[in-house]
Amino acid sequence: MTGLNVVIAGGGVIARTHVEAILRHPGLHLAALADPDPRAKDRLADWISEQGAARPAQFASLGDALAAEAADLVVVCTPSGSHADLAEQALAAGAHVLVEKPLDASLVAARRLARAAADADAAGRVCAVMCQHRFDPASIAVASRVRAGDLGRITSAVASVPWWRGQQYYDSAGWRGTWAHDGGGASMNQGVHAVDLLLWLLGRPEEVFAYTGILAHERVEVEDVATATIRFADGALAVLHATTAAYPGLGARLQVHGSQGSAVIHDDQLEYLHTAGGPDSSAHADGRDQSGDAVPPSELRGAVKPGDAMVAGHLRQYHDTVEAILTGRRPGVTAAEGLLDVAVVKAVYLSAHLHRPVPVPAVLAGDFDDVLAAVEGPAAAVSLIAPAQVAR
């Protein structure tokens, strides 16, 4: 066997996507699966065998796997509430770590893991967070224009994740739709990728004002609709919309606007890009779409997406993670960035609960931890509903 030995913690749905990416990467060898559910392990191991790959060893816990296997990289694919504990365990054992988003369901735990990741970084170990959409060609094209100043001063952005999840989705596993294991609803699990892209493109968030609601699902503790305004340090304003109550589900959309240009990403493809090409934006007032100059035709809006598009996105980030491990550089998405994503989502929940703007730096620092502890419980679910609805 050659390459880095990989141990996966968790044998659920998202683990299969990770496995597909790992099997395609020439520098990775899937050594073991760890999950307390033997059925989950068996199903995933059987599927791996069906792909013609060697059947990995199976363990009931990550600790058992780490004791038995020489793990170079541990991939955490368990429910969100266990991410920090397992990632810290892997780092303590000397392994590099890739954590499926979000960093953790708990801001306290996410903060703790970010500190452990910083210590690991100083010791030459990588701890990355899976935010694969940063590595989409469309995202990279827009980010490069933003970094180069081609869009001028970034003034605003709109991120919408209008997805649908039927009641069966939440009923399919006891941890879904709970504060303890999911850490939130549409904003945390579906919208966190949009949050990550907003922060990556617009910079440091300062304040959040939000409303959330439980409007289309039953037996859940967390929101299925959220809208928020985010104010950034340089004055830019962004609107975040995330929902699992938009039947039948539409493509995620991100618009970025500046004083000299705008860009639109729709369903991970570049739909529109225009930059003025100079300080006099009136010279290009026609707004000609320049998307075709920025990405290959296969990445333009309307192009047929390959059936393995999701795996391809994960594979791009695996290439980045492996390169970071081999070269000693930091990964494309660090634990500190993953922590900030979680803090912004928690600010959404705090604002919806308190009915006022919430400063993100204070959330990040722990000033709202006591309030969060009260918000994140079954008895507090009604606080997610907008005030007018409570009255009804």
> For the largest beta sheet, what order do the strands appear in spatially?
13-12-11-7-10-9-8-14
Instruction: Report on the biggest sheet.
Output: 8 strands, mixed
Radius of gyration: 21 Å
**What is the H level of CATH, i.e. the homologous superfamily of the largest domain?**
Dihydrodipicolinate Reductase, domain 2
| CATH domain class of the largest domain | Alpha Beta
Query: Count of DSSP helices?
Result: 15
- Reported CATH architecture of the largest domain: 2-Layer Sandwich
How is this structure best described in words?
- 39% of the residues lie in helices and 21% in strands.
- By secondary structure, the chain is of the alpha/beta class.
- It has 2 domains: 4-132 and 312-334, 3-Layer(aba) Sandwich (Rossmann fold); 134-307, Dihydrodipicolinate Reductase, domain 2 (2-Layer Sandwich).
- A hairpin with a 2-residue loop joins strand 11 and strand 12.
- The longest helix is centred in the last third of the chain and has 20 residues, at 335-354.
- The relative contact order is 0.14.
